[in-house]
Amino acid sequence: RGVRLPEHNSPPAASIQVVRGSVRVTGQEEAELRAGDLDALTHFRHAVEALEDCAFLLTTVTSQPSGGSHATRTGEMPVMKDEDRA
Question: Which residues lie within the region annotated Disordered (predicted)?
């Protein structure tokens, strides 16, 4: 509770999904989000504050160079074989 992600610019496309607890997102508009809520964060300055113990998933989209592939921080994403898929 009270932990704050200071005001910052979001990437061109991002979303926040609250998994547990609740948060307040401030910026151009203010919103209180609770577990299960999903909100798009457009390209504007905003901050996130925990209103109680919480967990949230922050998803961002960044541009890729033409012809590039998606990669993880540790390298290329692994290719799954058909027999590995459940």
Answer: 62-86
